[in-house]
Amino acid sequence: MKGAPQIYGTVTIGQRGQVVIPMKVRKELNIKAGDQLIVMSGPPGRKEMINFIPVEKVTRILSHFEGHLSALRKELSKKNK
């Protein structure tokens, strides 16, 4: 099913709270040693879920939206004059 969540297996939390991300998901998402991941709960209202999101992808998304916000601010400031 397109867009359905993928199940990659299970992980065990180590004594120091560490998790090993399964090789299949690391390969599919091109996650390598040293990559930084943001750890989030979610989706909204689902605090029992954990998501790992590559910092690089979040940075790219934020940059995209910052451009749109800048243009929107300029447009709004014109209308408020």
Characterise the protein shown here.
The chain has one domain (23-79). 38% of the residues lie in helices and 12% in strands. It is built from 2 helices and 2 strands. A two-stranded antiparallel ribbon has the order 1-2. Strand 1 and strand 2 (50-54) form a beta hairpin. The longest helix has 25 residues, at 55-79.
What structural class should be given to the helix and strand makeup?
A: alpha+beta
Measured distance between first and last alpha carbons: 51 Å
Judging from the principal axes of the Cα atoms, what is the shape? Answer: elongated
Work out the oligomeric state of the chains in this entry: single chain
- Give the averaged pLDDT, no decimals: 88
- Largest beta-sheet details: 2 strands, antiparallel
Task: Name a few traits of the molecule.
single chain, 81 residues, alpha+beta, two-stranded antiparallel ribbon, elongated
Question: What order do the helices and strands come in, and which of them pair?
Answer:
Elements: H1 23-28, E1 37-41, E2 50-54, H2 55-79
Antiparallel strand pairs: 1-2
